[in-house]
Amino acid sequence: METILTRLDNNSARTNAEWYFPAESCSFDLSTLRDQSLKLTSVLHANGLKKGDRVALMMTNSSSYVIALLAIWRLNAIAVPLRPKGSRQTHYADYIQHCNEICNFSLMLFDDVVTSEIFRHPDLSQQHYADINTLIEAATHIPAFNSEVKISGADIAILQFSSGSTGAPKGVIVTHDMMMAQLQNIHYNHIGSRRGRPIESLASWMPFNHDMGLFIGMLAPVYTGSNNMVAPPAFYMRNPPRWFSLMSQRHVDMNFNTNSVLASTLKTLRRLQKQDDIDLSELHLYIGAEKVSPIIVRRCYDYLIPLGFKRENLHIGYGMAENTLGAACTKTQTINLTTFKFISPNCLEPVEESSENSSPDTGKNTIELVATGAMDWRHNITIKDKTGRSLPELTLGEIAIKSPCVTPGYYRDPEKTSEKLIDGCLLTGDIGFMYNNELYFYARQDDMINHAGRNIIPDDVEMAIEELPFIRAGASALVGVDNPQTGCTDLILLAEVSERSTANELTEYQQTIQNTAYEVGDIILTRIILCQRGTIEKTSSGKKRRAVIRKRFAKNQINIVRKNNNEQRAAI
Questions:
Q1: pLDDT tens figures, 458-509
Q2: Which of 46, 268, 355, 452 is packed most tightly, with the most Cβ within 10 A?
Q3: What is the CB neighbour count within 10 angstroms for residue 274?
Q4: Is 267 a member of any domain?
Q5: For residues 468 and 515, what is the distance between their CA atoms, to the nearest angstrom?
Q6: Contacts of 282 (CB under 8 A, 6+ apart)
């Protein structure tokens, strides 16, 4: 059977594809990466790694990461990409231990980004750790692995831990067959977008522990034998214009990004408009991993078209780790932005189909949404009610996916598997509807807040709040908290603000946020909590971990920005 390794062997022999790692200031051709991975395979084999062993990868994007993944698969072991570090609110060692309890790692590879706390954790102290760079250096003078380990399509290639945005991370099983089916799907989608031209040059900064980063930044260029540019997320976030400039220089035609990251970085691209050497005419930009705002779609056109970007080269995608990435994407020349009116709690009708630059018809019970595109090749997407019955178009329900890319389940979690997978059909937990053969994503089921008989969508309110000049993109979170005294759900808005804000500024911020929430969502916030930077915790793809934020709020663990040392916390 064909695997990612047979594609690697064939493509490294027929192409001179260059992989550029700008954060390391180095380049490798595909054959060199293959040869180095075979040497590392010899080292791992000598250390007893075998078929089915789980290998944790606690590393940031790098050439070493690519070499490690290829070596692990050469032995038919299972790669488990994990976050390389924690956040202010989470104990990284506890996260690693949670994953280890599920996987029972045979080997844990790390680089110099990983925090040392994991080595001191009592439940992890006996694990077999290895510095990946030390291993690769030791493999320099070792003969390449020349044995053949048979791989079947049903063998597990990856355990992709879910983001944990709505609960504890779960190990999504990704088989070799699933992986190849999704790579073929990505390849066909891009050929369709480019009118018959295959992928020639990719670029990705998304972390490999996220499915989008792994497939676009590592697997797709191996599968297609194309040029590639890979960097860690910090490389992009430190200087987004530099990233787009590099994509121009390398004639990149495929890049993925997220709504929240674009919201925080697009404005920085203004400086590139002063240069005459930026040409993004080849670039196809795909936005996915979370709900996409019409504001961001319009902003992409505003900031990218002056750089040569073509309007028809912007695409929206929908997918999830349980489907090995994508299930639907834009297949039309323009992205459809449509305003809908609710005619009942779960049924909508289109008010107008707006172009990118027009203003939506806003008002009570209306919402403007971005089409996430038509279903992908060999994918069947349906909208189901709570009984499992398929719903007609323009009716809200749970998005369900059936495809050759759907996971067989969660590793060592039969209960969650039976809950989310029924006869091979994945129940996504996402709410959406179909209209004109396109999928519209509405909200995560777990994120929706039922308040006063209405479903409140946090994303829509937060996007408006984050347009305010004193709130950064991605720096607010709306959560619903049950009030035992009233029996109702309180609407709590947490927003990060500068700790240098004066008492008058903090009061003004709260009033402005309250007014904005009412104007945009027709809601009155129960409390507005102004908090310190880093409070709004996110997943590796930029999704807000609302369940975690809600729990920390309930435990009074939010770091408040105070008016002064003697006053109570800044909240209403």
A1: 988 998 899 899 998 889 999 988 888 777 888 999 999 998 999 999 999 9
A2: 268
A3: 7
A4: no
A5: 11
A6: 201, 251, 252, 253
